[in-house]
Every structure is written in C-alpha cells, then in structure tokens.
Design a protein that fits this description.
five-stranded antiparallel beta sheet; alpha+beta; eight-stranded antiparallel beta sheet; 14 helices; single chain; Transferase(Phosphotransferase), domain 1
Length: about 500
C-alpha cells in the first residue's frame, strides 16, 4: 500500500514535479510541528493505552506513560492552539521534533507510518499555489481553501493507498479538475433508487473496477473534489456526489456503506418533518450500489445530495473554511458581533433537534453557514453518516421514526449529547473561538459568553479521542475525551 513518507515524497517531487521540491522542503518543519502538536494534544487529554497520569507545572506538562515521561509546553497541547516554531516534546531526556519518530519511540510503529504520511501530505498541501482562504467565491473554491485538514487528528492528511502523484491529482487542496466516471451496471446487480448507473472516482476506477468485468464505462463528467476528497462537485450541477474510495483518510477507509445507501432518503424526510428553525438539510435524494454476492458493495457505491439553495448575495461557507480564512488574515469589521450571530445560527437548530432526539454530527466539514452581506443568517448541514437518532424521543414528540440502518439509532441521551457537543461545540465552535481570539486579540472567555446556552453549562465538554480510536483494537467505536467547559457555572 502506498504511504509515502517525507523522504519518498521529496524523491517523487525531484523526479516528477521538480518545481515543487524546494517549497516542499521549506514546508516540512512547519508540517512536522503541526502534526506533533496534534499528537502532543492527544497524549495530553485522550485515554490512550499506556498513559498513566498527567501533571502540569507552570507552563510545562508531563504525561507519564509506560514508555517514559513525555514533557512539553502545556499551551501547545491545547486544542486548536497554533504550534510554535520548533515545537519539541521530550520522551525522557530525548527531544523529538518529528511526530512519527516520537510515535515509534512510544511503541506505535504502525501508527507512525500514518503519521509520516500525514506530515508528507500536509507539507505537500502547503506547497499548493492558489487562492488564499476568504469568505467569497464558489463552494468548491471555499472548500479547497482548507489546506491543513482535521484540526485535532495527527493523521490530518493521511491518504494511505495513494501515491504522491495521486495526491497531487486528486486532493482538493491541489485544486484539480478530475473526471468522475459513469459506469453501467447490469440491472440484476443493481441496488438503488435510480437508474443502474454507478458514479466512480477515478482512483477507484484505476484500482478496483478491473475486478468487476461486468461493469461497463459509458462516460465521464468533469468535477472538482470538495473538502472530502471523495465528494465531488460536477460542473454546473445541482448535486454533489459522494463516491467510494478505498483509501484510508484520517481514521477510516472512505467507502460508502450499505447503511448509508439505505438511510439517506429516510433521514432526509425525517429532518424535513422536524423543521428545525434556520436549518437547511441537504437532501440525499439518490443512492446506489453494485450487488456483489447478493449484498451492496461498499467499494462500488455512491450517493447524491443537493447543493445549498442560495439567493443573490448569499454565500455558503463551511465552518472549517471560515476558521481557515480568519487564521489567514481575513478581516471582519465586527468580529464579536459576527461570532455572536454565528453561535446563534449554529446552536439554535442543533439544540432544537437534540431536544427531539436527533444529534447531528455538525463538525467543520459537514456544517456550513450562509452569509448574507457578510453576516451569518442560517445553517446548512450535510452527511448523515455520523447522525444519531433516538426513536423513543421522536415518539415522545409525536414523530414516528423511519427505519434506520447501521449505528444511527440510540436511545441513550448521553450518547446523543456527546455526539452533538463533541462535533459542534468542542469541535466547530471551539475552533472558531481559537481562530477569532488569535486573529483579533479577543479573550476567549468573551466569545464563550456569547455562545453560552443553559443546555451547555453542565459538566466538561466531550471531544472525540481520534488518536485513541486509531490505536484501539476496534477503531470503529466512538471514544471520548473531555476538556474543561468554558461555559460552565
């Protein structure tokens, strides 16, 4: 499996893209520091096997592990903190600036391969020429302006299975136009609610389709990859297309499960019926998969969702792109007022749905804010894979739940709350607080007072333990850490 580390990536660039080699070398120290900060933060807060205890002494944090004591700057371990130049974490007396070398020293050799690949692809992403993050432009332009990937995961830029040239061809931060392949499927082998035509990512076409000779290519459609590499915006279309790509990105191989194929229309209809105020849910109105041995194949599947409905003067900005633009220097005339409006636009519909038993996984990639004249006005949500729904709570509110497949259904109120708060509050909102406070010199406490709601004041905030999950025997189960709640009290 392709998992180029920085040395292999640089060798490929010297051979095939020599104009990028010097910029890649310049970007490597910053990429290592950024990934090391994510790894250091994970050891500072997550339930990672081997972590025994943690202690802070002034500005230094010590994490005692079975492999020895990790020590480093406490501030660099805070979620969303910008990593200092030359960030160093010590294991015992040995200093580390390379996160993959640290992971190996801690006994995580397999994970270190992923971390190395993340560093290489992050440095490569930072060589990409093009548009500075801003709050204007088309949705594909805004999505492709997010360069650094997942803000907390050390595997923020892993693409295990892709070569360096594949990453340059297909990754959104490199702003390619790719060819989405249309493949005819024999009707008897089709599962779905549309014609037996499968939409296939070009990487998947090259690496998977040859094993299925009964599939017939019939056309190609130009498209731009969105923030999620496997989700495409076909030129001039009214829909985006999520494709299957058998590549591990961050924590998962990005195929399309049979549950996702089945759930889209039902969850779309449920959320429309609940009519959360100020929320547009992007309908998943078509999906399909190839039947292999009588079952829908996750590697040969796709789903289609509507694009946001925008009026003249409106722009839909993913929350991750908003934070990237603020960090890059986009100036807002009234940042506190903007943040206050943003918090209301985000939290009002999400808490409305939570009270009715629906927890959206509203993180920075899945959630968009619509700006009109530069001000937040409403929320857009997409992707139902991480949603959690309580059938019992829906019935208490007079709503009959639809059939739900996979792991969407739960009547555990703590699971619902954790799913929502970890994504929307510890995730998307906390990233905005960090970006706004750093860019504008605003005290974070002031911003959090503008976001505080009665439902958010109790207890610590959950945050997904992405590194602990990656190191777990069963990485598919959610694992949570907690961080202090700045709205408590």
């Amino acid at each position: 499996m392709h998992a180029p580390d920085p040395a292999a990536t640089l060798a490929t660039l010297h051979r095939d893209r020599p104009h990028l080699a010097a910029a890649f070398e310049r970007a490597l120290p910053g990429a290592r520091a950024a990934v090391l900060a994510r790894l250091w933060g994970a050891y500072a807060r997550e339930p990672i096997p081997g972590v025994l205890r943690r202690a802070r002494d002034g500005g230094r944090l010590t994490v005692h592990t079975g492999a020895g004591a990790l020590t480093g700057p406490a501030d660099a371990a805070r979620p969303y903190a910008p990593p200092p130049d030359g960030l160093t974490v010590k294991l015992g007396a040995v200093p580390y600036t390379d996160p993959a070398a640290l992971a190996r020293a801690l006994g995580h050799a397999g994970f270190a391969v992923e971390v190395d690949n993340s560093v290489a692809n992050l440095a490569l992403a930072r060589t990409a020429p093009g548009r500075e993050p801003t709050l204007t432009g088309t949705l594909p332009q805004l999505e492709q302006s997010v360069v650094d990937g997942h803000p907390l995961h050390p595997c923020c830029r892993t693409r295990l299975g892709m070569s360096t040239l594949d990453v340059l061809r297909y990754a959104p931060e490199h702003r390619p136009v790719v060819r989405l392949h249309v493949v005819r499927v024999p009707p008897a082998r089709w599962y779905g609610d549309g014609p037996p035509l499968l939409l296939v990512h070009p990487w998947q076409r090259d690496h998977v389709l040859d094993s299925y000779p009964f599939l017939t290519p019939v056309g190609r459609v130009p498209a731009r990859p969105l923030m999620s590499l496997r989700t495409m915006a076909p030129a001039g279309g009214l829909h985006h297309v999520k494709t299957a790509v058998d590549v591990r990105m961050t924590s998962a191989v990005r195929t399309v499960s049979p549950a996702a194929v089945r759930n889209g229309p039902a969850v779309t209809a449920l959320l429309a019926a609940l009519a959360a105020p100020g929320l547009e849910v992007l309908a998943e109105d078509r999906a399909g998969a190839v039947l292999v041995d009588g079952e829908p194949s996750r590697s040969l599947a796709y789903l289609r969702r509507r694009v946001p409905r925008l009026d003249a003067g409106e722009v839909a900005v993913p929350l991750a792109a908003l934070a990237a633009a603020v960090r890059a220097g986009h100036r807002l005339p009234d940042p506190v007022g903007f943040f206050t409006a943003l918090a209301g636009v985000l939290l009002t519909p999400l808490l409305y749905l939570l009270r009715r038993g629906v927890a959206l996984e509203a993180h920075g990639q899945n959630t968009l804010v619509v700006l009109r004249d530069g001000r937040p006005t409403r929320l857009v949500y997409r992707d139902f894979g991480g949603v959690r729904i309580s059938p019992a709570a829906l019935r208490r509110h007079g709503v009959e739940p639809p059939p739900l497949h996979g792991d969407l259904a739960t009547d555990d109120p703590d699971a619902l709350r954790a799913k929502l708060l970890a994504a929307a509050v510890s995730g998307a909102l906390a990233e905005q607080v960090a970006a706004f406070s750093h860019a504008y010199g605003i005290m974070p406490a002031l911003l959090w007072t503008r976001a505080a709601r009665p439902e958010l004041r109790d207890g610590p905030l959950p945050v997904k333990a992405t590194t602990a999950m990656r190191l777990a025997t069963d990485p598919l189960d959610d694992v949570w850490a907690s961080i202090p709640n700045p709205m408590a009290g």
